[in-house]
Amino acid sequence: MSGAVQYDKVRAIEWRDGAIHLLDQRVLPSVVRYEVCRDAGQVAAAITGMVVRGAPAIGVTAAYGAVLAATSAFAAAGPQWRAAMAPDMERLRRSRPTAVNLHWALVRMEEVMAHLGPQDPTAAMTAAAARLHADDIEANRRMGALGAALLPAGARLLTHCNTGALATGGYGTALGVVRAAAAGNGVAAVYADETRPWLQGARLTAWELVTEGLPATILADGAAGALLKRGDIDAVLVGADRIAANGDTANKIGTYGLAVLARHHGVPFYVVAPTSTIDRACADGSQIPIEERDPLEVLAFCGVRHSPEQAQAWNPVFDVTPAELIDALITEAGVVEHPRAPGIAALFDRVTPR
Ligand code: MRU
């Protein structure tokens, strides 16, 4: 596929009439509905409950959440709005632990707040959140172009979780590379791991691909090894929730296993993430906090319990892939082959501070 098609139809986050409208990712693809958040508490609950998910999307949503927090604080406390919004900021900060984009976005908003006076901060903060949102889409497009350049024409790709427009401000990270490759030299096949237990691949990635008219083949997570062994995959593309300074990468549970399989079968394994996902304060992957969610996500399927009542479950929702298993890190500031601390640090010389 080539030509003028941009494969960019999906948006999950909209700021409209002083509220955040979130495409509800808990019920896609069978139901397409928006949840409207009008205060920061609702935003934090939407992040925790995964109405919105995906590291950059969480960051963009939290930035708009900070706007809502500031507006309420100004209504309640006038010139003392900054102190009054602290509890809401803390609630947003704690809404999910692994995706560092959440903290990154709130720090960006605090930097903007630091330059504001005692008057109503709403307009300035809305503009800052919208800029952060637009910058994320622009970064994704840049990563898309850089990543697509690494792929053969008519590439056969394997991806994990959902890293598309739903997981970001728009366009996507790893799925942005798929979109750019499709618009450029074409893609022959896109395989999406179903991504147990929450089914981000089977529900969300497949929905995005089908919505764009792109090929979509879903496989059980456990089938990835057999697929790679067949020699039918040119590259594995994944996103990231937090990348340590040395390149160790936390991403959706199952990513580590996929990286081991890709290395075993000699298939390039690419991590696609904006620099806002790199946590330079984290020396290596052992310092990345890994979220564990409700065991029922594993013990039940679509709300129906299928496992014995006496059985327990371990449900870490992210794992850490060691840097040595990553062939390249694709960011908006450039591609780092065989990512290690010096190459990752050098990326920040090319990031324009806002
Ligand atoms: O638990 P989720 O669905 O928020 O996890 C999302 C992922 O792990 C994505 O792969 C990651 O955030 C990168 S998305 C651009």
Description:
The structure is a single chain. The protein is an alpha/beta fold and 354 residues long. Helices cover 38% and strands 17% of the residues. α8 (200-211) links the parallel β5 and β6. The model has no long low-confidence stretch (mean pLDDT 97). The protein binds 5-S-methyl-1-O-phosphono-5-thio-D-ribulose.
What tags apply to this protein structure?
354 residues; alpha/beta; Four Helix Bundle (Hemerythrin (Met), subunit A); Rossmann fold; 7-stranded mixed beta sheet; 17% strand; globular; binds 5-S-methyl-1-O-phosphono-5-thio-D-ribulose
Write the layout of secondary structure elements.
Layout: E1 13-16, E2 19-23, E3 34-37, H1 40-48, H2 55-77, H3 81-84, H4 86-93, H5 100-114, H6 122-148, E4 155-159, H7 174-183, E5 187-193, H8 200-211, E6 217-219, H9 224-229, E7 235-238, E8 242-244, E9 249-252, H10 255-264, E10 269-272, E11 278-279, H11 296-299, E12 300-301, E13 304-305, E14 318-321, E15 328-331, E16 334-337, H12 341-347
Parallel strand pairs: 4-5, 4-7, 5-6, 7-10, 8-11, 10-15
Antiparallel strand pairs: 1-2, 2-3, 8-9, 9-14, 12-13, 15-16
This protein binds 5-S-methyl-1-O-phosphono-5-thio-D-ribulose.
Residues 53-56, 99, 161, 163, 167-168, 173, 200, 239-241, 251-252, 317 line the site of 5-S-methyl-1-O-phosphono-5-thio-D-ribulose.
